[in-house]
Design goal:
single chain, 253 residues, Rossmann fold, 7-stranded parallel sheet, 17% strand
Length: 253
């Protein structure tokens, strides 16, 4: 007969123990929440962001190993960041960029290039630089939009990019394998960025979503962060797009 165990519970090993997670755009919102969750799972955190003060506060909160303040959409600065990384890393999450809205016919050429230039080249540059820095089986996680896929006046550029990013993700997953590449597509997430975009309409938007979304609540950064960490740890996932929108695409809002 086996001897009784000293405890009825087995201690759970943190899922990212001794792994290094880089969050590009990690000083607030979804990026910061993902850093919090990854840190809680034992990861070493490297944070980047544009705002030095905000980045410093975020780094202190998640006990980041190191930080770097720069504009990730600048390919020269991005390449330098990867060059300066302290060795191989395990996962990179990119949350840099913000939604842009406006009717297509009202945009001049420079304005029309802003959103694609903040996402498509950024993702390609991250993947190119990550090829020699992320361990085999590690992951790249990109952020895109889900709620703006439907054609609508004022969402033309955002909608176009949202539809393009899953194809880009799938192709990058093939090209940089065995590094895994996945996309998280979000609808409205209750962040400081959302507040800055909506201004005085923020509470009205929250109320509408609580009433209309199938989940009957507003999606929070923690919802997205939980999925991001799962993608990091589940080594069978690559080339896929995962929607975190509370069912926003299923209803008219």
């Amino acid at each position: 007969m086996n001897a009784p165990m000293s405890s009825p519970y087995l201690e759970r090993i943190p899922s990212l123990l001794e792994q290094t997670v880089v969050v590009i755009g990690g000083s607030a919102g979804i990026g910061l929440e993902t850093a919090r969750r990854a840190s809680g799972e034992g990861a070493r955190i490297i944070l980047t962001g544009r705002n030095t003060d905000r980045l410093r506060h975020a780094a202190n909160e998640v006990h980041a190993m190191t930080t770097c303040a720069f504009d990730a959409t600048d390919p020269v600065l991005l390449e330098q960041f990867f060059h300066d990384l302290p060795g191989t890393v395990d996962h990179i999450m990119v949350t840099a960029g913000r939604p842009r809205y406006g009717r297509l016919i009202d945009l001049n050429l420079a304005q029309a290039r802003v959103v694609p230039d903040e996402h498509v080249p950024l993702f390609i540059e991250v993947a190119r630089n990550a090829a020699g820095r992320v361990r085999a089986g590690g992951s790249l996680i990109f952020m895109g939009g889900a709620g703006d896929r439907r054609p609508s006046a004022g969402l033309g550029i955002a909608s176009t990019v949202s539809v393009a990013l899953p194809a880009l993700t799938a192709n990058l997953a093939i090209e940089v394998a065995p590094i895994r590449v996945n996309l998280i597509a979000v609808g409205f997430v209750d962040t400081q960025l959302s507040a800055s975009v909506l201004g005085s309409e923020l509470e009205n938007r929250r109320s509408l979503l609580r009433a209309k979304l199938p989940i009957r609540r507003v999606v929070q950064p923690a919802d997205v962060a939980a999925l991001a960490v799962h993608i990091m740890t589940n080594t069978a996932l690559t080339g896929a797009t995962y929607d975190v929108d509370g069912g926003q695409q299923l209803v008219a809002i």
